[in-house]
Amino acid sequence: MEKWRLATGASAALTNKAKNNIIAILVATVRAFMLDTYRFARDSACLEGRLALAGLSRLADALAQTEGAVDYRLSGLMGNQGQACLRLRVTGRLLLVCQRCLSAVAHDVVIDRLLELASEDSAPTQEEMEDDSVDILPSVGALAVDALVEDELLLSLPIVPRHAECALPEATADGGQTHPFAALAALKHHPHH
């Protein structure tokens, strides 16, 4: 057993299996966030994992809760005409804010997207732009997988999340609704001495 010195100055004994597990986790984490898209597609590589919702900062504003995670699978492939493509599959459950009752509403996510990689120097044709079966992904080489997954999650959100049936937010005790300027009206009738 080899001893590794920790940042605190203490030493800890790690078995080879523990070291290999730590290395595998670190390598998977780095691979999960940046990859060379053309090589990934050419090699028909596959990457799958789980992303915590709390780590997706742009998506967090739309969520009622950031607990939980989504699962993703990114596969590289070459298209029928030799173009590099990525297939992204994302599944999970997001809790959004219902715009009618303001409570949490579940939104099940099932994304299956085929992304054709376009190099900087090749502009897509009009026919390619009108084809809804494939999306064009501009590629400069490296791709942040977590950002791609977050982009697709944002695109999957409903414009107005709401329950199929729900009540409006609760009314006040006297049965009426609270009016935004009710506190100002009360001050008008009860001036300070």
Report on this structure.
The protein has helices at 16-33, 37-42, 57-60, 126-130, 145-156, 182-189; strands at 2-5, 11-14, 35-36, 46-52, 69-78, 84-97, 104-118, 135-138, 142-143. With 193 residues, it is an alpha+beta fold. It has one domain (12-164). It has a five-stranded mixed sheet. Strands 1-2 form a two-stranded antiparallel ribbon. A hairpin with a 6-residue loop joins strand 6 (84-97) and strand 7 (104-118). The longest helix has 18 residues, at 16-33. Residues 1-11 have low confidence and may be disordered.
Secondary structure topology:
Blueprint: E1 2-5, E2 11-14, H1 16-33, E3 35-36, H2 37-42, E4 46-52, H3 57-60, E5 69-78, E6 84-97, E7 104-118, H4 126-130, E8 135-138, E9 142-143, H5 145-156, H6 182-189
Parallel strand pairs: 7-8
Antiparallel strand pairs: 1-2, 3-9, 4-5, 5-6, 6-7
What's the story with the biggest beta sheet?
Answer: 5 strands, mixed
What would the average pLDDT be, to the nearest integer?
76
Q: Tell me the domain tally.
A: 1
Spatial order of the strands forming the largest sheet? 4-5-6-7-8
Q: Strand fraction band?
A: 25-35%
Specify the structural class: alpha+beta
Number-wise, the strands total 9
